[in-house]
Write a structure and sequence with these properties.
single chain; alpha/beta; Rossmann fold; 3 domains; six-stranded mixed β-sheet; 9 helices; 14 strands; 23% strand; globular
């Protein structure tokens, strides 16, 4: 009997030993054939939610069901794979590209971890699919950021899981690699996989994701991108003036107030995002690409209470 490709999170609460509540009464339901963006500021619980789904953090309350199975059973069946942020990996560890991708097959091996011909074939196919076959004998520490990202995508492919979690997959990669990742994930979605992406790159969401979950320790909004990725919800999530996001010269939200916003990476700005003025030209209308820092020497962040309507 084929298992459904689903994530079901029911009334999950996670509270750490220091008393901090990382997640409170979280409810999420996602199904296969979907690419979903998980959106929230730093400290909103995105990483904790990923850890809960992967079985690394046990909630104080609630239930997680993956592909119709309790989480402890699902994890034994290689149903979920994970592509980490670069910061989570010790790149100096002496391991080859081939060995990293082969880790995706460990769940199919016995305790001696001796690869069978099928394992070797799946690894070769996964590396070819992300165009890293020529790197198989290279040390992971020698690769560029984009190449490293492809290696972990290949590991996820080799695992043959129904659900793929990706943490900031577009950070630190060039345009060519970003497109290659998006094309591959689109292909996997069309094959029925469930793709869940934690991202600060808001510019990719309207064109790439068909579902959005917005979180701040609890679920603030969830649903189709068209109905959920709205100005009101974005302002609620980011806690500041989010008037306008422009992508490739197009307004993603059509209203009369065209103040732009920039969404930067974790290490670039505090958790609260504000409206942005163009200091040099004294212009609210300067388009700023969501997902990256641009000409910030000419712009300053304006606290919400200091921004007045024109």
């Amino acid at each position: 009997m084929s298992l459904p490709t689903t994530i079901e999170i029911h009334n999950v609460t996670v509270r750490y030993n220091n008393g901090h509540t990382a997640l409170h009464d979280v409810n999420v339901a996602l199904c296969g054939g979907t690419t979903c963006a998980l959106v929230g500021v730093n400290g909103s619980g995105k990483s904790t939610l990923f850890k809960v789904i992967m079985g690394l953090v046990k909630p104080q309350a609630g239930e997680i069901v993956l592909c119709g199975l309790p989480i402890n059973q699902a994890l034994k069946q290689n149903l979920i794979s994970y592509v980490p942020q670069s910061e989570e990996v010790d790149w100096q560890f002496p391991v080859s590209v081939y060995d990293v991708v082969m880790m995706g097959r460990y769940g199919y091996m016995n305790f001696l971890r001796i690869a069978k011909e099928q394992d070797k074939q799946k690894v070769a196919e996964a590396m070819a699919r992300v165009d890293i076959s020529h790197l198989k004998n290279r040390q992971i520490s020698e690769l560029s950021g984009g190449q490293k990202k492809r290696v972990f995508l290949a590991r996820a492919l080799a695992q043959e899981s129904k659900i793929i979690l990706l943490d900031e997959p577009f950070t630190g990669v060039d345009v060519k690699t970003e497109k290659a990742i998006m094309d591959l994930l689109d292909e996997l979605r069309n094959l029925g996989h469930l793709i869940l992406i934690s991202t600060h790159n808001l510019g990719t969401i309207p064109e790439f994701c068909d579902q959005v979950v917005m979180i701040d320790r609890t679920i603030l909004a969830a649903g189709s991108t068209q109905s959920t990725f709205t100005q009101a919800n974005l302002e609620k999530v980011f806690g500041g003036v989010l008037r306008q996001i422009r992508l490739a010269g197009k307004d993603l939200h059509d209203d009369d107030d065209h103040r732009a916003v920039t969404i930067l990476a974790d290490d670039e700005v505090p958790a609260v995002f504000y409206g942005v003025h163009d200091v040099k030209n004294h212009n609210h209308n300067t388009p700023i690409k969501a997902g990256g820092q641009q000409n910030m020497n000419q712009r300053k962040f304006i606290p919400k209470e200091a921004v007045k309507d024109d």
